[in-house]
Amino acid sequence: MKIFIINPDYGVTPEQLATRCRLLSAHVGPDVELTMECLTQNKIEIDSALDVALAAPEIITMALRAQREGYDAVVIYCFSDPALDACRELLSIPVVGAGQAACLVAPLVGRQAGLLLASALRTPEKRLFVEQCGVNPARIAAIGGLGEAVDPWGERERAVELLAEAGAKLLEEGGVQVLILGCLSFLGLAKPLERRLGVPVIDAAVAAVAAAEGLVRQGLATSRRAYPAPPERQRSWSGGKM
Question: Rounded CA gap, 80 and 88, in Å?
């Protein structure tokens, strides 16, 4: 099985991409091959709705290429799930968004979850996003962000400290029993955080690749009734026409 992972942040090095795939490979079957690529045409990092819109065309093009190259599923490696619906309209293979995958896992291990974001500024957006994922907002009862900016890859210990502080606040004040890491840069930090706080912590990156693997093994693909193919006509960018 081959899963193609689209990292929508520009400038991730081949070594960094390989490290992420290595960490994720521990959570899928030995027959699963993971490939991750990042954007190269647009110098974008997903930190806003504007970034999501600007990154979408290249994400769609990459997803189409993955299908043509024989991949069994595509994962969008971002909690905002950029271009997810458009990719599902165009592709016949499963397309999994990390944000939706993580939110759907939460009710399996707790009654109410807390969502930990890299920045509290995105809280209003994520409150609406949760419902779009197909989860009753009451099941994700609290949302919080880190107290300061941190590079989760360059400052791993500091990132865990900040996540623990924000997570403890959600557990105490939000009355939640499980936490969701709401940024894909937090890959690999779930288990250290679990040990600190004593509750399940969902790693969105792991949830996404595990969901993609599960869909392929079950032989499930996107419903065309839910995501009908776009009308056939010429569009202004090459990825818009099958």
Answer: 15
What is the chain's alpha carbon radius of gyration, rounded to the nearest angstrom?
A: 17
Q: What is the pTM of this model?
A: 0.91
pLDDT greater than 90 at residue 191: yes
* Dihedral sign of CA atoms 156, 127, 141, 209 in order: negative
In angstroms, rounded to a whole number, what is the distance separating the alpha carbons of residues 222 and 224?
A: 6
What's the pLDDT score for residue 242? 45
Per-residue pLDDT tens over the stretch 108-149: 999 999 999 988 888 888 888 888 888 988 899 999 988 888
Q: Is the pLDDT of residue 101 over 50?
A: yes
CB 28 within 8 A of CB 96: no
Q: For residue 10, what are its two tokens?
A: 């520009």
Nearest to 203 by CA among 179, 183, 181: 181
The answer to whether the beta carbons of residues 119 and 181 sit under 8 Å apart is no
Q: Which of 175, 3, 179 is nearest to 76 (CA)?
A: 3
What burial letters (b/e) apply to 28-48, b meaning 16+ CB within 10 Å?
Answer: beeebebebbbbeeeebebee
Q: Do 46 and 185 meet the contact criterion of CB atoms below 8 Å apart?
A: no
Cα 135 from Cα 107, distance rounded (Å): 8
Q: d(Cα 129, Cα 154) in Å, to the nearest integer? A: 29
DSSP state of 42: S
Residue range 43-47: mean pLDDT, rounded: 87
Q: Report how far residue 73's alpha carbon sits from residue 94's, in angstroms, rounded to the nearest whole number.
A: 5
Task: Select from 220, 222, 189 the least CA-distant residue to 63.
Answer: 222
The pLDDT of 200-222, averaged and rounded, is 97
